[in-house]
């Protein structure tokens, strides 16, 4: 189906970029696009459960306002009239933000998070709030995987990944403190981007760990991922861990020709034994296909044995910070917290200042080792997850294949390149040097084009 037919008959299936072109060409209005997304939600939401809060009339009103603004011939932003889903730990002035816990039921912020303000400034329509796990940790929400509703969508950005995968919305925002973006992107079969640490403002976002929390995005193709990233990757003095940095202009960098064919290091990580055999076979075939198309593009390397300890350091930081960030919930609402979160908080309370400071300090050492690898290679290829989405809804799966890159702050993209024997998606994670987000996208584009030839 060409773009014109899709715009008329199935607008929710359009990418954000195609929807924007259709709107600019007069083939589609923002109101029609939002109506199409809402119709899709009406059709699928009962079986998938991606949304925590929806206000159909509000979304349509904002879409009509966007159309009226455009009709006046005024300049428009990159996402003018395009609907976006927002994880329900990100403050929105016109929707509740309940953080996936009954302890925050009815919470209504009076101010948008910085990233929501940037989206509105770019003309985006906030379609609604997507389901998160409890306080964005591990206890699942109601969301199911659109590829097979008997399987987990991953977490904690469960609703954002599932909503994009089910074509309920072309773009969505999530967060990652361990594996909460890349893992659900892998399980749901969509593109996911975790930028370099603190490249998207966290002001107005539920705080778990200032050392680890990262905002990222979901889309159904790489161009859309770059489009929303360009809107959000702006310096914000209200996030005290951000430093003034020029916007990365990812769409522009991604479109530039590569100066030479990129070289990739395939990193199995210390958890390779946890990868399912079908996924191991898939990665072997992928490496063979890439090297057949472009000789010596991918080399297999192993990280030094000291990386075995990185999981303990990440756990020390994350759980100690959870104990501090959620001290009030633990003190006043412990009976309403999941047992898993209680255990994490109680372990975190036992982490000594010396242990915590040591684990934070080790980040530089590990990052320097990765930098040495990435001086020789343009990017790292590695699993996004140990396999496809696990069966069952009691767990959101393991984040162990994301921990290293979150701890060190490297940018990462999930690309839905593989499938297991039953057809469930399995993601390939591409990782670049910290701060080199544009190059990450350019290398990813090159790889996709190579494999499509």
Whole-number count of domains: 2
What is the spatial order of strands in the main beta sheet? 1-3-2-4-6-5-10-11-9-7-8
- At CATH level 3, the topology of the largest domain is Amidase signature (AS) enzymes
What would you call the shape? globular
Tell me the major beta sheet: 11 strands, mixed
Order of helices and strands: HHHEHEHEHEHEEHHEHEHHHHEHEEH
Which CATH class of the largest domain is shown? Alpha Beta
Helix content: 40-55%
User: Which stretches of 5+ consecutive residues score pLDDT under 50?
Assistant: none
Quaternary: single chain
Within CATH, the superfamily of the largest domain carries the name: Amidase signature (AS) domain
> Whole-number average pLDDT?
97
The fraction of residues assigned to DSSP E strands is: 5-15%
Explain the overall architecture.
- Helix content is 42%, strand content 13%.
- It is an alpha/beta fold and 453 residues long.
- It folds into two domains: 3-250, Amidase signature (AS) domain (Amidase signature (AS) enzymes), CATH 3.90.1300.10; 255-311 and 355-452, Amidase signature (AS) domain (Amidase signature (AS) enzymes).
- Helix 11 packs across helix 13.
- The radius of gyration is 21 Å and the shape is globular.
- The chain starts with a helix and ends with a helix.
- The model has no long low-confidence stretch (mean pLDDT 97).
């Amino acid at each position: 189906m060409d773009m014109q037919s899709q715009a008329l008959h199935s607008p929710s299936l359009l990418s954000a970029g195609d929807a924007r072109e259709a709107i600019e060409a007069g083939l589609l209005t923002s109101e029609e696009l939002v109506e199409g997304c809402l119709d899709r939600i009406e059709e699928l939401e009962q079986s998938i459960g991606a949304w925590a809060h929806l206000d159909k009339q509000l979304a349509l009103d904002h879409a009509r306002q966007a159309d009226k603004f455009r009709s006046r011939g005024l300049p428009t932003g990159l996402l003018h009239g395009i609907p976006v889903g927002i994880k329900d730990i990100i403050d929105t002035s016109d929707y509740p933000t309940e953080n996936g816990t009954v302890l925050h039921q009815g919470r209504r912020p009076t101010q948008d998070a910085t990233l929501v303000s940037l989206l509105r400034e770019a003309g985006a329509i906030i379609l609604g709030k997507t389901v998160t796990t409890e306080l964005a940790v591990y206890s699942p929400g109601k969301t199911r995987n659109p590829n097979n509703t008997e399987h987990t969508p991953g977490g904690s950005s469960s609703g954002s990944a599932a909503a994009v995968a089910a074509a309920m919305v072309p773009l969505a925002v999530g967060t990652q403190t361990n594996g909460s973006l890349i893992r659900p992107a892998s399980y749901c079969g969509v593109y996911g981007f975790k930028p370099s640490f603190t490249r998207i403002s966290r002001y107005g976002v539920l705080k778990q760990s200032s050392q680890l929390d990262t905002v990222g995005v979901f889309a159904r193709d790489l161009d859309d991922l770059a489009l929303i990233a360009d809107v959000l990757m702006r310096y914000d003095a209200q996030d005290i861990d951000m430093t003034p940095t020029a916007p990365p202009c990812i769409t522009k960098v991604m479109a530039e020709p590569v100066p030479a064919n990129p070289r990739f290091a395939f990193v199995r990580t210390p958890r390779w034994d946890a990868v399912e055999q079908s996924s191991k076979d898939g990665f072997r075939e992928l490496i063979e296909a890439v090297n057949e198309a472009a000789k010596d593009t991918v080399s297999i390397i192993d990280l030094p044995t000291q990386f075995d300890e990185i999981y303990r350091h990440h756990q020390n930081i994350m759980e100690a910070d959870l104990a501090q960030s959620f001290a009030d919930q633990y003190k006043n609402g412990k009976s309403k917290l999941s047992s898993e979160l209680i255990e994490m908080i109680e372990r975190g309370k036992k982490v000594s200042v010396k242990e915590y400071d040591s684990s934070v300090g080790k980040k530089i050492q590990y990052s320097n080792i990765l930098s040495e690898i990435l001086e020789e290679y343009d990017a790292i290829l590695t699993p996004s997850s140990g396999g496809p989405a696990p069966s069952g809804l009691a767990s959101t799966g393991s984040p162990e294949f994301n921990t290293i890159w979150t701890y060190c702050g490297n940018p990462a993209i999930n690309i839905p390149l593989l499938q297991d024997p039953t057809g469930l998606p399995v993601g390939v994670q591409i990782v670049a040097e910290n701060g080199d987000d544009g190059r990450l996208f350019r290398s990813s584009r090159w790889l996709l084009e190579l494999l499509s030839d």
